[in-house]
Amino acid sequence: MNVSYKQVQRYIGNRKFFKFFGYFFLIITIIILISTLVSVISWNSRKENYTQVYAFCANGQLYYEYNNQRIYIEEIYNTKNEKITLNIPENETVMMYVEKTNKNIGLYLNMDNTGDQSMINPIGQIITGMITLSVGLYFMLTYKEVQENKATIKPLVLFFIILFVMGIGVIIFQIYQLVEYFQIKEENHVTTATIYSELYREGTKTDYYQPVSYYYINGKRYIYVSDSFEKGTLNENIGKTFEVYYKASDPNQIVKKGNPMNIPILIAGILLTLFSSPFIFLRKNMKKTIEKNTTPLKTK
C-alpha cells in the first residue's frame, strides 16, 4: 500500500475524531501552561521567605550547616502546607527550603512531582506544552483545510516550526552554559571538591546517582550538586575529588573543570533542529514533492 501525504491529509480531514483530537490537545496545552504559570507565580510570591539548603542525613536526622553551625530540621512540610515525614537513607542529601524566620522548619519540593518541579523549573512543562500545541494545531488546521477543499503543507510546517524553536532553545541554553564556563574559568580560581553524598530522589534505585560534593573557599564550606547523573553508586565514589573553577565574588557559582556543557542534550538540540529545518526552509521545494499525487492508494 503506497500512500501520499495528500491522501493522509484528506484521511485526517474527513474524520471528525481528528478534530476532537485537535481540541483535546489544545485544551491539554492550555491546562499545562496555566497550571505552570500559576505554580511559578505562587512560588515566586513565597520563595523570598525561604532559603535553599541541602540537608544531610546522619543517624536518622537531617541537618545543614549555617555559619559553621549544624542546624537540624525539626519539621518538614510539602507545598500544600501539610506536615510530612521523609525517610531519607543514611548519607544522602535532600534539597529543601527553610524559613528565614525559623531555620528548623523545612519545605520539601518533590522533584519527582510535576507540580512541584514546575514551580522552580518550568522548562519541562513548557516543552511539553509546545509539543501538545503543535500536535493539536496540526490536527485542527488539517481538518479545516480539507473541509475548505484545500491541501497544503502549512499544518505540517507549523508543527516543525515549533520543533525547530525547541531545538534552537536547547542549543542557545547550552551555548550560554559554555560562555558562563569560560567566564568563570577566565578568573582562574581553582579549588578541590570532594564527593560525600548523593542527592535523594524518590523511587527505585538505579545504577546512576547524582553526586553531592563539598569544597572550601577561605575556610568556608560550600555545597556543589552535580547537574547530571553519573554511572555508579555513592559507595563506589565517596571521597573522590575533582577540581572546580569558582567565581571569587560569589563562590557559590562554580563549574566543574573540563565539563563546559551537557553534550548529549546539545546533540539532541542539534538533531531536532536539523530534522525540522528542511520542512521550514525548503518547504517550497518539498511542497512540489510532498503534496503531489504519487502512486495511487492500492489495497489488496
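Next protein, fold it too.
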Amino acid sequence: MNRTSLSVVASLLAIVFTSVSIAKPAESLDILKITSVPDGTYSVTLEIDGTPVNAEFRIRNNVARCLKSDKAPGDRELKGLVGNFTLIANGVFMMQMRNESFAATQFWAFKPDGSAEIKEIPDRGEAQRAVPIVDKK
C-alpha cells in the first residue's frame, strides 16, 4: 500500500470511529430496578373478543388513562378507562382498569426497550402490547 492509500484508509477509519463514538446508544430500561411504570404516553394494542383494538394511554404516577381508542366489539368505548398499577414482580405490574362500558385486569411485563407485553386475567392468548411513544420535540 502506498502512502496515499494508507492516508485514505486512516481517514475512513477516523470517520467511522468518530461517528460511532458520537452515536448515542439507545436507552435501556433496567427492569430489575423499576418500582413504578415509566411515565409517558403509550401506543397500546389490545385484543378484545378476538378483535384488535388500538388505543393510546397516558401514564403518570402509576395511573393509566386511555386518551383515545378504536371502538371495541359491542360498541364499547375504551376512552376514559382509568387504572392503577401495582408492582408484583421484577418489571411486572398489575393494573385493574375500568370505565362505564369496560373493565379488565392486566399484567404489564416490561422489556429493556421500554415496551410491555400485556396479559389479561383470564389469559386467552391475546397478542397485546404497549409501546412508548417518543416525543419528537
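About the second fold: The longest helix spans residues 3-22.
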